[in-house]
Specification:
The chain has 65 residues and is mainly α. Helix content is 43%, strand content 0%. The protein has three helices and no strands. Helix 2 crosses helix 3. It is flat. The N and C termini lie far apart (43 Å).
């Protein structure tokens, strides 16, 4: 039997907080942790790819932004 595992947003942030940011300073419009958390949440919500699908989830289900 599988056991439910609860992970909080703070747990996700703590897990990735020491991740080194490989982007050039020119491309750092948003903090890396924000990008990572949005990507993780997008995948958990059913996004199928790292660009359009995650962006759609990040924008609340529409691509209006």
């Amino acid at each position: 039997m599988s056991k439910d595992i609860r992970v909080t947003l703070e747990d996700v942030i703590t897990h990735f907080e020491d991740l080194e940011d490989p982007r050039s300073t020119i491309n750092q419009r948003h903090p890396l942790i924000s990008v990572v958390v949005i990507a993780v949440m997008g995948v958990l919500a059913g996004a199928s790819g790292p660009t359009v699908s995650v962006a759609t989830v990040a924008c609340g289900g529409s691509r209006s932004r």
